[in-house]
Specification:
Length: 469
């Protein structure tokens, strides 16, 4: 905008035609919402407006504007307001959904609980869970079975997250029927439905899915409540745990805020659920997409195998966290998978005050949608952007993907504090795959597709693993 010029208004921006009252709501199927936004950006440019019922929203695919909005959180922008409201209804209002001073207080606790030293202490248990996944896949490879990669990886990340968060060994990789895992799936599915809903019907009428959710929540609260009681008893019996907690739950129980107050039981439950739900879905889907790309690109498998053989040696599992920085190609694979198939291809924010974004005046309450993947697929940001080329990241600083679109771990103050744990899980599984298997695509019930269901997940992803010779 030229110096001294008046800012544009929402009426000055282009956008797709819609229907009276409904606006563009019927043109935005939940599972493909991100793709529709990207298609419209190709038609209307990097900043346009849409209507979601009576509400007007601004969509931008400009990474500089996305960074501005994320940088100005939490003072000028917050997550779209219904997220915190729904999270409170579900009893899972933790760091992900919290805003303002509540978020600042929780973030200090999470940074302490998820620091590098804690991850290092936890590493042997993570390796144990990776070994169980190895055993599961060795049996499938020997039998020549086709693997539902996403389903197996969801089991893996549930086991890791539940053990790290609660100190509970769910062991879903070797057995079925763990109560916490079963109820987590129900709560995650319900949360996704409610976050995407255009009208909060459940406040007025209870459908069978809502009654199932009520039962799942009650069961989770009993299970987690019992583990909270056990953790309190351990800390009372061993005061050393107050100085060196062994898991997130213990850290939440012993942490005090600046006023010296301990967290409420609601905060402890909400933040435990935040780690379990976020840790299950996001990491599993990232690993599944990595396996998909590795199956389609044998040269990437060869490069991964060469690096892991050099760093890990003859062992079937990666056991030394001090080697993490040497697994650069694993990070490159992760970065490229996240560029093409980011966990969150769009961020939904609300302007908390009258602000300007890209020379456009946004009244307080305006919904802002950052369709961040669109920029990652354009040539001005990446050479040959539609190709899977992990090597593009090897000449970049190790943290470069956090600063470029689509910013999969968030950015600035709201960068994900669970990043260290997620990256460690990803490296552990990638190293195990490289040391033990060759990956091939396998026929599924249909073509592999991406579906937005709270996070971007693969559908119909099947692979075949062959023992490495």
């Amino acid at each position: 905008m030229a110096e001294g010029a008046s800012p544009r208004t929402l009426d000055d921006l282009p956008g797709p035609d819609g229907l009276p009252l409904l606006g563009n709501a019927l043109q935005l199927p939940a599972a493909r919402l991100h793709q529709v936004l990207e298609d419209w950006a190709a038609q209307f440019g990097p900043m346009y407006t849409i209507r979601m019922g009576p509400r007007r929203a601004v969509v931008t695919t400009d990474p500089a504007l996305a960074q501005q909005a994320l940088r100005e959180r939490p003072e000028k922008f917050s997550r779209i307001t219904n997220i915190e409201v729904i999270a409170k209804e579900l009893g899972m209002n933790g760091l992900f959904s919290a805003e303002g001073e509540h978020w600042r207080r929780l973030r200090r606790i999470w940074i302490s609980a998820l620091n590098a030293a804690q991850i290092k202490t936890y590493f042997p248990r993570l390796t144990e869970v990776t070994g169980r996944l190895l055993g599961r896949w060795q049996r499938a490879a020997t039998a020549g079975e086709v693997i539902d990669a996403q389903a197996d990886l969801m089991r893996y990340t549930v086991d890791v997250s539940v053990r790290f968060a609660l100190g509970h060994d769910a062991n879903t990789l070797q057995q079925d029927g763990d109560i916490i895992q079963n109820q987590l799936h129900e709560v995650m599915a319900a949360a996704g439905r409610r976050f995407r809903a255009s009208f909060p019907y459940w406040r007025y009428v209870r459908l069978p899915a809502d009654r199932r959710l009520d039962r799942a929540r009650a069961s989770l609260q009993l299970s987690v409540g019992s583990l909270i009681d056990q953790a309190r008893a351990r800390i009372a019996a061993n005061p050393e745990l107050a100085k060196h907690p062994a898991n997130l739950l213990e850290a939440l129980l012993v942490t005090r805020d600046e006023a010296g107050q301990v967290l409420s039981d609601a905060d402890i439950f909400g933040n435990t659920m935040t780690l379990l739900l976020a840790g299950e879905d996001t990491t599993a889907n990232t690993l599944a997409w990595m396996m998909h790309f590795l199956a389609l690109h044998p040269s990437a498998q060869q490069a991964l195998r060469a690096e892991v053989d050099t760093v890990v040696g003859a062992d079937s599992l990666w056991r030394d966290p001090a080697q993490a920085d040497r697994l650069r190609y694993v990070e490159a694979l992760m970065s490229e998978a996240l560029r093409l198939k980011p966990v969150a291809p769009a961020f939904f924010l609300t302007a908390l005050q009258d602000v300007q974004l890209g020379g456009v005046a946004l009244p307080a309450g305006t919904v802002v949608i950052l369709a961040t993947r669109a920029a990652a697929l354009r040539e001005e940001h990446f050479e040959q952007p539609l190709e899977f080329r992990p090597e593009r990241w090897l000449s970049a600083p190790p943290q470069a993907y956090a600063q470029k679109p689509p910013m999969p771990f968030g950015a600035f103050a709201r960068v994900c504090p669970g990043r260290n744990l997620a990256v460690t899980e990803i490296k552990s599984v990638a190293a195990m795959l490289a040391r033990n298997f060759e990956i091939e695509p396998a026929p599924g019930p249909g073509p592999v597709q991406e579906v937005l269901n709270f996070t971007l997940q693969p559908v119909n992803l099947r692979v075949r693993l062959r023992p490495r010779h």
